[in-house]
Design goal:
About 30% of the residues lie in helices and about 30% in strands. The protein is α+β, with helices and mostly antiparallel strands and about 375 residues long. The protein has a seven-stranded antiparallel β-sheet, covered by helices on one side. Strands 17-16-15-14-20-19-18 form a seven-stranded antiparallel β-sheet. Strand 8 (about 175-180) and strand 9 form a beta hairpin. The chain is globular.
């Protein structure tokens, strides 16, 4: 695809010019060019799908119905706007909307050429249902390296209880999801068995797995609990399947954590060897004790952020595990830097991280990727 080759060239040019501070204006022009190509590609997809009655399959129509006035997703950018984050257990999550979708129209109003504020106004213009035409880009924008597929220990459909933080257990809604327990002793779940990107994941180490009483509202249900966060309630279709899941998950909970071992292994690899990263590029990082900003090449993968001296480093000099962290934009007054953001720990004893980027677009890209990478992991502990 033409757009894919444009992305490759942008990455290549960025690597060439990041070492030269005098090339900032050229870098910004290249970013503007990429954004223009993104707009052209989305518009082309839109036109072709209209002409062919949707046969091309690039554009999708998504219907999102609000609950209590909330749709459950955030957008970044202008001309076009892009879906930046999707909150779990919300109408947006169940509608099929995905991070990276370019919004072409909202309730019949084309928004490709509209500013962020205009799109927000259209979306909240007294309407409880959004019909969104989107162009799906996540497959194009993802890094083209592919991880070798690992055969799951066990997979199948389970019922997952949603809305776990509110109300009594027997009043919750149950949704059907495809679950996969993999050799890294992590439990992943997907909207369907055909999806490649998990909606959520859980490291099974130190979790308990137990049958649930009938009061939970579903037969053959069991609870996965860390003892600290919100438990995960799931249910099988038969007693036999429920028993098998419980047995395998209990075994995984008592094993080591190959996922963590693999993350530690990545520390000793060059950045190019980390397959399918969620984001990568240069960031300015504030040192501990506010001792100054340093330029670092960073790679984000599965909510772990690896730090390198530069893109050609043979090993990383550090890593931050960001499970449970929150990402927030910062004002120039608060940080002393333009285009800055912070990564906030779930507990005060854990380290706080501060970064800034060379452009507003790059800042939005990193915040979106961090939110997406972190929010995939089920917050159970």
């Amino acid at each position: 695809m033409l757009f894919s080759s444009v992305v490759k060239r942008k990455i290549y040019f960025t690597e060439l010019i990041t070492s030269n501070s005098s090339s900032d204006s050229l870098r910004r022009k290249l970013e503007d060019l990429l954004k223009l190509m993104l707009l052209v590609w989305a518009r082309e997809s839109h036109v072709i799908s209209k002409i062919t009655a949707g046969e091309r399959g690039v554009d999708k129509t998504i219907v999102v119905k609000s609950e209590s006035g909330e749709f459950g997703f955030r957008i970044h950018g202008s001309k076009p706007v892009v879906v930046a984050a999707i909150e779990p257990e919300t109408p947006a999550e169940s509608s099929g909307l995905e991070v990276g979708d370019i919004i072409i129209s909202v309730n019949g109003v084309e928004v490709l050429d509209k500013h962020h504020t205009e799109v927000v106004k259209i979306a909240h213009d007294g309407c409880e249902t959004l019909e969104l035409e989107v162009a799906r880009t996540i497959g194009v924008l993802m890094h083209e390296q592919q991880e070798p597929p690992s055969q799951p220990i066990f997979s199948g459909y389970l019922w997952r209880q949603s809305g776990q933080a509110k109300g009594a257990p027997n009043t919750k809604k149950w949704v059907r999801r495809w679950f996969s327990l993999r050799p890294d002793n992590c439990l992943y779940y997907y909207k369907t068995e055909d999806d490649n990107q998990p909606v959520g994941a859980m490291i099974m180490a130190k979790h308990t797995v137990d049958h649930c009483p009938p009061e939970v509202g579903k037969p053959y249900a069991f609870k996965i609990d860390s003892g600290e966060g919100i438990p995960l309630y799931v249910a099988a279709d038969t007693e036999e399947l429920s028993s098998r899941w419980i047995k395998l998950l209990k075994q995984a909970a008592t094993q080591g954590t190959p996922w963590l071992d693999n993350s530690a292994h990545n520390l000793y690899q060059p950045p190019c060897s980390i397959t399918r990263p969620d984001c990568f590029g240069y960031l300015l990082k504030l040192g501990s004790r506010w001792c100054g900003w340093s330029k670092r090449y960073c790679v984000l993968k599965d909510a772990c952020l690896y730090f390198y001296q530069d893109a050609n480093s043979k090993t990383a000099f550090g890593m931050a595990c960001l499970h449970g962290y929150k990402v927030s934009s910062m004002s120039t007054n608060a940080s002393g830097k333009k285009n800055s953001f912070e990564i906030i720990p779930p507990e005060t004893k854990l380290r706080h991280y501060y970064f800034c980027t060379e452009s507003e677009m790059d800042k939005k890209r990193w915040i979106s990727a961090l939110e997406y990478s972190i929010d995939r992991w089920i917050k159970s502990g």
